[in-house]
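Here is an idea for our session: we take a single protein and study its fold together. To get us started, please write out a protein record for me. Start from the sequence, derive the backbone structure tokens from it, and show both lines together. Go ahead whenever you are ready, and we will take it from there:
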Amino acid sequence: MPEWTKMAVTLAVVGLQVYAGGRAILRKSGVAATLAWLLAIIAFPVGGALLYLLGASPSIRRAARRQRPTARGLFAGRRSAEALGDTRLAPTAQQVVELATRLTGLPPTVGNQVRLLTSSKDAFQTIEQAVQGAKRRVWAEYYIIKNDATGRRFLDLLIERARAGVEVRLLYDAVGSLRIDPERLHALIGAGGHAEVFLPVNPFRRRWSTHLRNHRKLVIVDDTVGFTGGMNVGDEYSGRGLRRGGRHFHDSHLAIEGPAVSDLAEIFIEDWYFAAAEQLDGVAPSAGEGTCVCAIVPSGPDQVHNAHGMVYFAGIAAARRRVWIASPYFVPDSGTVRALVSAALRGVDVRLLVPARNDVRIVGAAARSYYAELLGAGVRVFEYLPSMLHAKRMVVDGVWGIVGSANVDIRSFRLNFELGALVVDPDFAAALERQYETELRDSREVSSTALAKLGLYPRMRDAIARLASPLL
């Protein structure tokens, strides 16, 4: 190779490193994450720089913030923060609800009926029955829709409703639903339905991304009932089939009726506008006969302060008696770790439930690296044994809880578009605690003694996985 060619290649590589390193520094995503990316860019001159630009570049994030209208911007003046009226919330819930409102622009609503769905079979049966009975519209938004029996059945239901004249709109994530059945998508459109992909992985499109994913799960039927939570559309989620290794996913989902459904619709309207550049009409809030105060919590990289990260932090910090958390992928940021540790040291009953065998091994290893610090402060850690725990929820002081799509990890608190429902109601909180106690009976508690007996290899493996946690 001629000298001038070598010089040109060297300058190109150095230029790529400088460009990627500069963007990593300007991104301001935390010292740990920035240093990790800089180390990768320096250690792997071409691969590290390209991986950063494809996997963590802030360009899509900025475009999203400019072009994706906020809930407050779309529906300014529709409802005020006085929506609670004379309802008085417990102090541990009041401040967190106010925080969520300020972060999302969605005031809480009263009179909601919220049902916790933990049986995969029952959850999918409830959703499918609601879709089958739709008379006016079905709006659906998912991270994963698999090309398996459950995924095909769900699409067939949408196709049938579209043929019956129901307004059907489907929004699916480009990466999570990479293997969605293309023939059924065409059939849905041919039947009069609408389908859009969220942030396709196509560098020739104006907006594309590999890392900013729509992790939300949402179905709205006839503006009267909404479903959200952690369940995607696939056999391992519905219980119809097993994931590799012979295990299904154990999850949590919500069925919501009442005025909060209009807020779920608002989130769909935002996301549809972002993906399709089509403005849909809002949904008027319905009168509710339930007892639950509900604040819908969307979060994503288009927020200056991530709503889920803030709500979890504030909920842990405000807890007076107990805070019980379930998360399949536990890779917390330093603030969440400090909140958990300080709550336990204050005498709060802090419990963490994670899967015993994680389907993403590096994430499971990274999670274990936090155990010693948490156990040392008095946090109790449990590993769920029967299947892959996929539920994402927190319940505080027997007063309120949040169920949604967000994991307690850096990706959910920084990169993914997530959705959850913060519900204030003693009966609902009691249902969450009963479910948690049932799961604990099928779990093993991690002890400091067992951790101390671990050999050098597992300790080193977990420690190395933790080094990658800012990038997971």
Remarks:
- The radius of gyration is 23 Å.
- The chain is about 45% helix and 20% strand.
- Confidence is low (pLDDT under 50) at residues 58-81.
